[in-house]
């Protein structure tokens, strides 16, 4: 199959076979990044790189990662097309493995695979299948992300009503300084939520119980 194209505002990207095609969740994240040139961003699971490109176009510096070599190749070519190699660094690896010791970010953005689905399902696709309840990737991410945020840094995380977002809300409220649903929108089979959480200045001011 030939590559597909996707766009957000004036940014067009190519989407190769085997790479997640930007959809409503992607566009919800793109529209609510609120980045500036002061931001250092980690976009985890970048896919074709659209979210990273949108952030970089606001002047932010971005590290974009993905575990999939197809995604890495695709994101690199889209980033090169926009001549943003000096602002976006692309690294391959799972979760925070590609992050160097001491690296921290003012924003971590993740549109994870959040739909219920396991490797036993014929339709399994690692770009959107998040384990039996759709929460496996989200929960590993949540348990590790705080360490990679600067004090007062922001987390933006897409979730769906198909994978128990209440658990995410409770986790964020317990472990972050503030947590809110920044935006939500219904589609015909699910409701998408974008969570925003702010890391406390120091862990002593955390709401952790
Ligand atoms: C739903 S897609 C989102 C892609 C893109 N960010 C977007 O919004 O269009 C999830 C992406 O996360 C990647 N991914 C899944 N598990 C991952 C992991 N453990 N570490 C890094 N990336 C992962 C997938 O390869 C896929 O590209």
**Ligand roster:** S-adenosylmethionine
Total number of distinct structural domains: 1
Main β-sheet, spatial strand arrangement: 5-4-3-6-7-9-8
> In CATH terms, what is the architecture?
3-Layer(aba) Sandwich
Q: Compute the CA-based radius of gyration.
A: 16 Å
Calculate the mean pLDDT score and round it: 94
Q: What do we call the CATH topology?
A: Rossmann fold
Q: What is the overall shape?
A: globular
| CATH homologous superfamily annotation | Vaccinia Virus protein VP39
Secondary-structure content class: alpha/beta
What does this structure look like?
The protein has a single domain (24-205), classed as Rossmann fold. It is 23% helix and 29% strand. The chain is built from five helices and nine strands. It has helices at 24-31, 50-56, 69-81, 136-145, 165-175; strands at residues 4-8, 11-15, 40-44, 61-66, 88-92, 105-110, 149-160, 178-186, 191-198. The strands form two sheets. Strands 5-4-3-6-7-9-8 form a seven-stranded mixed beta sheet, with helices on both faces. A two-stranded antiparallel ribbon has the order 1-2. It is globular, with a radius of gyration of 16 Å. The relative contact order is 0.14.
